[in-house]
Amino acid sequence: KVAKPQVAIKFVTAYDEYTMDAMKLHASGYLMKPADEEEVRAELKELRIPIAEVEGKRLRAQCFGNFEIYIDKKPCDFRYAKTKELLAYLIDRKGAYVSNGEILGTLWEYKEVTASLENYLRNLIGDLRNVLKESGVDNALLKKKGMVAIVPEAFDCDYYRWIEGDPAAINAFAGEYMSQYSWSEFTLAGIETHMVEDYDD
User: Fold this and answer.
1) pTM
2) Continuous segment of H or E residues that includes residue 143
3) How far is Cα 21 from Cα 24, in angstroms, rounded to an integer?
4) In sequence order, which ranges of the chain are alpha helices (DSSP H)?
5) Over the stretch 160-170, which tens digit does the pLDDT of each residue have?
6) Which of 86, 125, 82, 88 is nearest to 103 (CA)?
7) In sequence order, what are the beta bridge partners of 59?
8) Of 33, 83, 131, 160, which has the fewest CB atoms closer than 10 Å, so is most exposed?
9) What is the pLDDT of residues 115-174, one digit of tens each?
């Protein structure tokens, strides 16, 4: 079971008469416009559920909203744009080995599988391996004949933390999951079902 979300809202307004609205939302902070950087930082420190990053993990995957992947807090720069989607799908599979055939059928759902497309997929996997190797995190990827997987423990991932019931990750979910990829809708439906079941309890 996924833990029920806890509210961690910061309320910002230019009108002091909205103070009561903030209280009704159970906001954990209140700022009047114009708010300077120091005030914002002070309020963020006081979040009931602080924004968390897992220490010691160089790879960070953001799955809620659009998918993004970072190494040492910097966006990954792949040779092919499609490599990013490949990695997103592997992260979505949570460490399960995925066959080349499954990847082809998912990432190119309506496209005929040809020798050229199979070769392109091999290039994507090679691109992913090279980028991870150059950054010294190639142990995050597992490869065997015709199959590939990631090591979930190598990633600080909001989706994985959500599964574990981490309050900050639950709070971060706003109804979107890897929203640039159509195949992610199946996982999104599962997340939403869990949320509804948890509220019903």
Assistant:
1) 0.73
2) strand 141-144
3) 5
4) 19-24, 37-45, 81-92, 100-107, 115-134, 158-163, 167-172, 185-200
5) 999 999 999 99
6) 86
7) 71, 155
8) 33
9) 999 999 999 999 999 999 999 999 999 999 999 999 999 999 999 999 999 999 999 999
